[in-house]
Every structure is written in structure tokens, then in C-alpha cells.
Write a structure and sequence with these properties.
- The longest helix is centred in the middle third of the chain and has 10 residues.
- The chain has 132 residues and is α+β, with helices and mostly antiparallel strands.
- The strands form two sheets. A two-stranded antiparallel sheet has the order 1-4. A two-stranded antiparallel sheet has the order 2-3.
């Protein structure tokens, strides 16, 4: 059984003369390209998840956007979500590239957004507590 959070990574390329069983439920054809969020670059602004609600969600542990369905929204709606991204971390890629991109992402150490971490610099000077 496929993990629902990884479902967007396992879609196969659409071959015109063969049915794969992974065609969109809503009756359309698979796109020529898949949508991919580079979570290492994502800042968690949530713009894409607000525009294309059936395609993107915010991963609860890291606070970064993730593509959860390749057939969730229209191509136009997904493109609109891509264009709203302030850090340009959402891309159209070949379906066959998804497993390698997932492995590359899994190999990176991503820290939750907005939480303190050892990698961040600590305040060196004390806070000014006097109220002159």
C-alpha cells in the first residue's frame, strides 16, 4: 500500500496506448509534467496551498509546502500557485524524475520552520532591559 503522503511521488508517465491504473479519478489525462516542491527552499508561506488547495498542503512537522496530488487542480490553477511562490520553489518536472527528487530530498536534513535550532546564531548581546 502506498503511503498517502508519498502518493504524489509515485505517479507514472502516461503512455497513450496503455492504461496504468493511475489516471486521474476525475476523468482527465495525466499531465506531461508533474509538479514538484523543493522543500529545502520552501519558506512555508502557504500561498500555493491557498491557491491550489487540492494539490498542495503544508507538511505538519516541517511547515513546508508539499504536492500531495498531481491531479488535484487544473493546470492553470497549479500554474497560478507556482507564480505566487515568493521563493520560486515549485517546478514542473518529468514524472520519471519524481523518485530521484524524493530520494534527494530525503537525504537532506530539514529543520522545522520557525523553531530554534543549533544551526541558527544565538543572540550575543543581552536584551536591553532598562526603560530609560
Amino acid at each position: 500500500m502506498v503511503d498517502p503522503s508519498a502518493a504524489a511521488y509515485v505517479a507514472a508517465s502516461y503512455v497513450q496506448d496503455k492504461r496504468t491504473g493511475k489516471e486521474p479519478v476525475l476523468g482527465g489525462e495525466l499531465r506531461e509534467k508533474a509538479v514538484w516542491v523543493d522543500e529545502a527552499v520552501c519558506i512555508g508561506c502557504r500561498y500555493c496551498a491557498h491557491v491550489a488547495t487540492n494539490t498542495f498542503c503544508i507538511e505538519p512537522n516541517l511547515g513546508r509546502s508539499r504536492a500531495i496530488r498531481q491531479d488535484g487542480d487544473s493546470t492553470e490553477r497549479i500554474q497560478e500557485a507556482i507564480e505566487t511562490c515568493p521563493v520560486d520553489c515549485i517546478h514542473w518536472v518529468a514524472f520519471d524524475d519524481l523518485p530521484a527528487l524524493k530520494r534527494q530530498l530525503d537525504a537532506q536534513e530539514l529543520l522545522p520552520l520557525g523553531l530554534p535550532s543549533p544551526a541558527r546564531l544565538r543572540r550575543q548581546l543581552p536584551r536591553n532591559t532598562s526603560h530609560d
